[in-house]
Amino acid sequence: MNFPNPFYRWRPHPWHGLETGPNPPKEVNAFIELSSFDLVKYEVDKVTGYLRVDRPQRSSSQPPSLYGFIPRTYCGNRVHQLSPKSTKGDGDPLDICVISERPITKSEIILTARVIGGIQMIDDGEADDKIIAILFNDYFWQNAHDLSDIPQVLIDRLLHYFSTYKLIPGKEDSTFIAGVFGAEQAWKVVEAAMKDYEEMFGN
Question: What is the 3-state secondary structure (H, E, C) of 29-62?
Answer without folding.
Answer: EEEEEECCCCCEEEEECCCCCCEEEEEECCCCCC
